[in-house]
């Protein structure tokens, strides 16, 4: 794992009452979650981790951390090459660190649908929120930001036993021969009705039907971290409900645009999709 110290030595940029010291925990692969593991943070301050490449940037905001805490950030899956990481406290630049990002190695996923891809597809059914097309609605939800963090030190797998992965994160997707971007989650094959568990605690911000993902649940874990559970046969939670890690939020199915029974798990940080398997392996809090 690539690790580098953030040496906050430019005292001219820092107030005299405190100095942060952080270490970078990031494996250098695009589409993966990284962490700044920090000491000396101010619990009354707002920290921003900003990633910039040659053409764009990503901003990850963290309110009122613990004095010893981890600040997460996410590198977009299509980024590669030289990236700069900036750490700010209340608008003051604390550090600038160069990162070398390797592009995630992916496979090609080719999917074919007929007129009726699967018996659980409900023809012509509109999304619960009244939108005929799901993508803009999902993007708005994933950009929701809650300044309080709910999640535990580690995430847990969403299924108890069935961990056979049919489609990994980042796969290039072709549907009926047409390119449809990359796979923004992980697909776990499992029998219909298998319980699905919340990987972390948080508040349900969506629980309903969407045309592509079928019966879907989205949980807000705070600080911009979201988890999405798709193609469910049953939804066992309601919008606005607070769920605890390990609570059953639905059952495996094949609703929406699906070719078989499976769970699609997506994880996002400030609307940036990251590999859920990487998130499950990380220790997210001290």
Number of helices: 2
Q: What would the average pLDDT be, to the nearest integer? A: 84
Fraction of helical residues: under 10%
Intertermini distance = 18 Å
CATH class categorisation of the largest domain: Mainly Beta
Uncertain ranges? 1-17, 116-124, 126-133
Domain unit count: 2
CATH superfamily of the largest domain: Glucose Permease (Domain IIA)
Strand count: 21
Gyration radius from CA atoms, angstroms: 20 Å
Order of helices and strands: EEEEEEEEEHEEEEEEEEEEEEH
Q: How would you classify the helix and strand content by structural class?
A: mainly beta
Query: Per CATH, what is the topology of the largest domain?
Result: Glucose Permease (Domain IIA)
> What is the level-2 CATH architecture name of the largest domain?
Distorted Sandwich
Beta-strand share of residues = 35-45%
Overall, the morphology is globular
Biggest β-sheet, characterized? 10 strands, antiparallel
């Amino acid at each position: 794992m690539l690790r580098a110290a953030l040496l906050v030595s430019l005292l001219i940029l820092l107030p005299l009452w405190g100095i942060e010291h952080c270490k970078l925990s990031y494996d250098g692969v695009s589409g993966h979650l990284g962490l700044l593991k920090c000491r000396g943070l101010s619990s009354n301050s707002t920290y921003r981790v900003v990633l910039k490449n040659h053409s764009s940037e990503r901003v990850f905001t963290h309110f009122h951390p613990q004095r010893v805490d981890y600040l997460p950030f996410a590198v977009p899956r299509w980024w590669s090459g030289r990236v700069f990481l900036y750490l700010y406290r209340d608008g003051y630049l604390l550090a600038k660190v160069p990162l070398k990002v390797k592009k995630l190695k992916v496979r090609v996923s080719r999917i074919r649908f007929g007129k009726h891809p699967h018996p659980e597809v409900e023809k012509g059914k509109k999304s619960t929120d009244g939108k005929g097309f799901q993508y803009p609605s999902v993007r708005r939800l994933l950009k929701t930001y809650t300044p309080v963090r709910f999640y535990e030190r580690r995430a847990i797998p969403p299924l108890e036993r069935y961990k056979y992965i049919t489609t990994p994160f980042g796969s290039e997707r072709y549907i009926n021969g047409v390119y449809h971007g990359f796979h923004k989650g992980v697909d776990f094959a499992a029998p219909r009705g298998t319980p699905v568990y919340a990987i972390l605690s948080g508040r349900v911000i969506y629980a309903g039907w969407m045309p592509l993902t079928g019966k879907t649940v989205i949980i807000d874990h705070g600080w911009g971290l979201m988890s999405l559970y798709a193609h469910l046969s049953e939804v066992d939670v309601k919008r606005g409900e607070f769920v605890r890690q390990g609570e059953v939020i639905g059952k495996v199915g094949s609703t929406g645009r699906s070719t078989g029974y499976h769970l699609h798990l997506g994880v996002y940080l400030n609307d940036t999709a990251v590999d859920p398997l990487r998130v499950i392996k990380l220790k997210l809090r001290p």
